Amino acid sequence: MLSPAIITLPWRPDAAEHYFAPLSALPWAMLLHSGFADHPHNRFDILVAAPRATLLTRDEQTWVDDGETVVVSAEDPLQLLQQQLDRQPFTPQPHDDLPFLGGALGLFGYDLGRRFERLPSHAQADIALADMAVGIYDWALIVDHQRQQISLLSYDDPQAASTVAGGANADAG
């Protein structure tokens, strides 16, 4: 089973903002930010970009882009997501110190539930968000505020991931 290479970077309290700035222009860049609060559940920030595949669901259709082809499907979007995960050359395993080791990350909107059950339609569709927008990532930058540690992980080439992450590995030297 393929395990990710993990590089530990020097601690800096503004790591999420520092490393996300250059990532933000990349396709499907995401920052899950803990909010800096002194709460035990506000421990991690997760940064990703440039996924291996993306899935975008609007109403009854899901666009699956694996980087080579785009397929539009009316199948269950969660099953389509699982199919894409199964096609990846890596299977993330639980890690004692890291909450995310690659895989699916993104938006699962409330209206996605309409694909699976009948829900009352009280709210006006006033925000142009997809029902589901998920990327499948083979690398991530994890900021652990509790341990004051920054981890760059990659199933591919960690040096390539550091380049994508805005030269993060250059900060390690």
From TrEMBL:
Classification via Pfam families: Anth_synt_I_N (PF04715)
UniProt keyword Transferase, yes or no: yes
GO biological process, any: L-tryptophan biosynthetic process
Superkingdom of the organism of origin: Bacteria
EC id: 2.6.1.85
Domain Anthranilate synthase component I N-terminal, residue spans: 20-150
Keywords for this protein: Aminotransferase, Transferase
GO molecular function: 4-amino-4-deoxychorismate synthase activity
Keyword Transferase: yes
UniProt protein name: Para-aminobenzoate synthase component I
Organism per entry: Klebsiella pneumoniae subsp. ozaenae
Organism classification: Bacteria, Pseudomonadati, Pseudomonadota, Gammaproteobacteria, Enterobacterales
